[in-house]
Each structure stands twice: as C-alpha cells, then as structure tokens.
Amino acid sequence: MQSRPKVIGRRRFCLCGGEQVRTLLAMPSRCRTLWVTGTDTGCGKTVVTAALALALRKRGVDVGVMKPVASGLVEVEGGLASPDVRFYRAFLGLADPDELVNPIAYAPATAPSVAARLEHRPVDLMLIRRAFTELCSRHEWLLVEGIGGVLVPLSDALTAADLAAAMKLPAVLVARAGLGTLNHTFLSVSALRAREIPLLGIVLTPTSRHPDLAELHNPEEIRIHTGISPIQLPGVPGVSVDLGEGDGLPQLVDGLASLVDVLMGGAAA
Prior knowledge:
Elements: E1 7-8, E2 11-12, H1 18-26, E3 32-38, H2 45-58, E4 63-66, E5 69-70, E6 74-76, E7 79-81, H3 83-92, H4 98-101, E8 104-105, H5 112-119, H6 125-138, E9 141-145, H7 160-166, E10 171-176, H8 181-194, E11 199-205, H9 213-226, E12 231-232, H10 250-253, H11 257-265
Parallel strand pairs: 3-9, 3-10, 4-9, 5-8, 10-11, 11-12
Antiparallel strand pairs: 1-2, 6-7
C-alpha cells in the first residue's frame, strides 16, 4: 500500500518518499553539480545545458549530463527514447549509458506525475540516487537538467524543486526572453528562494530572430525585480532539439562565459 507523504522540515515528499528522501538529503556529492531548470516546457533547458557543458569543457572540465526524469518519448530504432538525451548524445558525445543519463523515462508527453499514473510506475527516487551517485563518481561536474518548470509535480506530493532541494543542487533558471516571461520568471525565482535553492544565474533564450520591444526591455526588468542580471542568448541557426540540430551550439558558448565564471567560483546570485 502506498505510504502517506511525510514531512521533513516544511516540505512534503512522496510515496517512495520519507526514507529515500532522507537518504538523498544525507548523500554527499562527489562532484560539483548544477540543476538547469526552467520556467516552462520548451524554454530551452536542453540547449542551455548542452552549451554549458561545452563551455565547461572549454575550461578543461570533465562534464557529465543527467536528465533524471523525462516524458514524451519518441520512437527510434529499437524502441523509445528521450529527444533531450538523443540531443546530448549526438552533440556532446556522451559515453555514459542511458540508464544513468535518464533513469526515469515515460512515454506520455505529460507532467511526470500524470505519466507515472498512466504507466502505473511511480518515480523511483532510489533509481535516481544510484544514477546520480555513479555519474558523480565518473565526472568532475554533473549538469542535471530538470523536466518542465520549477514546480512540475513528480508525484502527488513531490515537485522537481523538492527533489533538487533534497539533492542540494544549486540552480540556473532558463526562461524565454519575450512577452510574458516576467511573471513566469519572478514566480520561478520565488519558488527557488522559498526552498533555499541557490540561484546562480538566469539565462534568457530568444523567442524570435529579431528581438521585439519586450525582449529588449525584459532583461532590465528581471534585474530590477530579482537582483540578478540575466544572460540573453542570441538566436543562432542550426540549434533545435526537436529537429535534432546542434551544429550551432558552439556559437552559444562565449555568451555563457560570465555564468561559467560564477559556476567555477561557486557564488550564488
């Protein structure tokens, strides 16, 4: 029978929950880690994660990438796969096996909590823990891409932010640059700070090749209201997770240099 969510501090965790989350909380990281989260689905987390990996490699750092939970698998030869993991494998040359890079994968293109119910397969925190520990033993840095937005539910009582807090992951927030991003960004920043997750930076991804008035002014509004000066990435051709295009990724590396400086220094914004 499914156990009731237990309370740890002020946060409620899930089913697979109490004891496993306590284990996660006590788990020391053998490498440096970063949670790349976002304001929404499709805001550019995968592209930013891949570009950050390339930027860290440029500094001589051995980087691993992980997507603990994925949904919306696509058909490939031999079965189903996450488009995000396929993108990493194609353009980062990952050698780590899929069961480590993406230990939990669901076919339905829904929130993980919904997909888990549809497939009768709850998110297994111990599976995530084992993959995380193994990847940390293999790399100096581990970039952990989130699924959906900061508060996307993984179960009835566990959000992505709760998991990141349990794993003690500092965060970078990815957001769209265009109209409507201010509210989404401020809510996401508030959720991260409420859980005392260190926020190391905000990255804005382009919504068009030619920035409109909102895109031109949103970075300053974000700085005023959050105290963080966001990085605004340019639109570059040849970068699309959906189309499997990543040849333009190196053009984004220099734009992330200031964020990499923060990561290497470990200072929170």
